[in-house]
Amino acid sequence: SDKKQTQQCFLQTFNDLYNNNRQIIITADRPPKDMALLSKRIAEETVEAKWDGKDTNFRLSDGLVFSLGRF
């Protein structure tokens, strides 16, 4: 089916970027653990960021800085 092919294409692209140490940002309306599309390995490599309604900067443990706000 088209959905399965899309998922396979996404996972291949994700793996190619990940294996080449590229930064990957995925936005969604639910946390990674609740997304059936993501494999367990991908979900384990992600962090959940929540927006509190204010313009906010915060630092993750690996030193990556996220800036959340309205765009």
TrEMBL record:
**Residue stretches making up the Chromosomal replication initiator protein DnaA ATPAse domain:** 2-43
Among Pfam families, the record links this protein to:
Bac_DnaA
This chain's protein is named Chromosomal replication initiator protein DnaA ATPAse domain-containing protein
